[in-house]
Structures are given as C-alpha cells and as structure tokens.
C-alpha cells in the first residue's frame, strides 16, 4: 500500500502507512528505515534535500554497514543523481556483506557496462550464474556483453566464440528465446567474418585459462547456427499471435535484422 500511495501521489496515506509499519515493527527495523528513506526521497523538493538524505544514509551505514535496505536506497539515490562511480563503490560494499544478492550483482553488471568496463560486468554475470545456472536471460546477457566487448580483447575469436556458446546455452534453456536467437545470429555471423580474416582454429575464452579453453566452432557449424536462428526468427515474426504490443521492441529489432540480412544476401 505504501508503494501504491507514493506512485499515485497520495502522500498523506503513504505517511499513514509508514507510521503504522513503524509502530508494528519498530522505527529501527531495517525494512522500515529503508521505506522511510524512500518516503523522504519522494518528499524531497530539490537536490539539496536529496543530498541531505545521502548524508543521513551515510550516518546509518557507519553504524551498521550491513543494513541492506538503507544501502540499496543509497545506491538508488546515487544513481538518480548520476554519481555512477559512487553507486558502483556502494554496490561493491553491499556485495561484500551480501555476496549472494543476485539483483545487486545484476545491477552492478549494468553499471559496469555503462562505463565500458566489460570484463568486470562479465564477472558479475558469472557470479549470478553460480547461483542460478539455468537463468537463460543471464546467459544471453553475458553473450551480449562478450559480443559488444570483442574489440577490447586481443583474442577477438575467443570472445566471439564464448558469446556464441552463451547464446546457444540460453536457447537450450529456453526454446525459441528471441533475444538468444537474435544474439546467436549476430555473433555467429561476426565470428565467421573474423575467422575469414585469418585466425587460429582453437583459442582460449577471454576469461579462462588453458584448462577452460573451448574449441572455436567451424565455419560450417557457424553457418548452420546462423541459418537455424534466422529460420526460427523469421517463423516467429510471421506468427499472427506475435503481437506488436506484447513484444514490440524485440519484434522490431528482429524484423530489421532479417531485412538487413536479406539486403546483404541480394548484394
């Protein structure tokens, strides 16, 4: 109810429910402290009031660094104030106290991606997969980060090969996963182009060592993967029930990708 009141601008009702929670659980309860911070942020009239909230969060965390709700409010506020470096440091401190917080690992990964720190983002996503190894969306996100970061690795083929592997895993876990198929098509075609430039057939993954090296797929295998992904994407795009409103962004990207592939083939 408190969240609903804040979303609808009913400040009086939000304050009422906050008081009720404080009476029920105590004003020093961690969750109540986090909700009180949320309410005060919503009531803040200017940036100076928000900076005062940051100082109050700092005071609370000095006394109790493991106060997760307040720490998360601090991180959210730092991000809203565009203080990315401070938000990253706060997330690192949070994860030092709560290393199994999957949501915080995911948020930290996105912060690192926004700063171009791709290797750190990959580490965060791999930490998530240690707890949820069957999270197909995380495998796909890791594939995307590897694909985007290809230019930052001296071993471009290793990075792209790992990206292909991650996209394949996401599709294996979630049959017909659009994001995974889209990434697989892009990564496999990019890898074929890089191999065509002249490279070795077996390399290490960018984050692994000799024992974790994976063989790079052959050109024939990559061609089959690309064709299979294209076929499934085209089939999904033609389905009448694939409503534009339900997945408009994904579908628009799929259609653009298929159209660009058709133009390239005609050329």
What would the keywords be for this entry?
mainly alpha, 13 helices, 267 residues, 2 strands
Describe this structure in words.
By secondary structure, this protein is an all-alpha fold. It is built from 13 helices and 2 strands. The chain has a two-stranded antiparallel ribbon with strand order 1-2. Helix 8 packs antiparallel against helix 9 (136-148), helix 9 (136-148) packs antiparallel against helix 10 (156-173) and helix 12 crosses helix 13. The protein is elongated, with a radius of gyration of 23 Å. The protein starts with a helix and ends with a helix. The model is unreliable at 199-211 and 243-248 (pLDDT under 50).
Summarize the structure in short.
The chain has 13 helices and two strands.
Radius of gyration: 23 Å
Order of helices and strands: HHHHHHHHHHHEEHH
Mean pLDDT value: 84
Instruction: Measure the end-to-end span.
Output: 59 Å
Q: Mind summarizing the main beta sheet?
A: 2 strands, antiparallel
Helix content: over 70%
Order of strands in the sheet with most strands: 1-2
The strand count comes to 2
Indicate the low-confidence ranges by residue numbers.
Answer: 199-211, 243-248
User: Shape from CA axes?
Assistant: elongated
Total helices: the number is 13
* Class from helix and strand fractions: mainly alpha
Beta fraction = under 5%
């Amino acid at each position: 109810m408190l969240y609903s009141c804040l979303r609808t601008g009913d400040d009086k009702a939000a304050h009422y429910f906050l008081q009720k929670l404080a009476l029920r659980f105590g004003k020093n309860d961690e969750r109540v402290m986090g909700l009180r911070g949320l309410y005060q942020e919503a009531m803040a009239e200017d940036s100076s009031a928000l900076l005062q909230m940051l100082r109050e969060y700092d005071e609370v965390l000095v006394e109790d660094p493991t106060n997760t709700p307040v720490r998360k409010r601090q991180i959210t506020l730092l991000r809203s104030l565009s203080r990315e470096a401070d938000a990253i440091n706060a997330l690192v401190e949070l994860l030092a106290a709560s290393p199994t917080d999957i949501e915080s690992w995911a948020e930290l990964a996105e912060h690192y991606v926004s700063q171009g720190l791709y290797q750190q983002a990959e580490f965060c996503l791999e930490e998530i997969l240690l707890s949820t190894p069957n999270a197909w969306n995380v495998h796909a996100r890791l594939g995307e980060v590897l694909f985007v970061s290809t230019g930052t690795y001296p071993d471009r083929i290793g990075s792209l090969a790992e990206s292909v592997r991650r996209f394949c895993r996401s599709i294996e876990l979630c049959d017909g996963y659009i994001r995974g198929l889209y990434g697989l098509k892009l990564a496999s075609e990019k890898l074929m182009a890089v191999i065509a430039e002249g490279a070795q057939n077996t390399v290490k993954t960018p984050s692994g060592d000799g024992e974790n090296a994976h063989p790079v797929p052959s050109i024939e295998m990559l061609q089959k993967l690309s064709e299979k992904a294209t076929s499934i994407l085209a089939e999904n795009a033609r389905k009448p029930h694939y409503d534009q409103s339900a997945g408009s962004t994904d579908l628009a990207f799929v259609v653009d990708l298929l159209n660009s592939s058709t133009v390239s083939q005609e050329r």
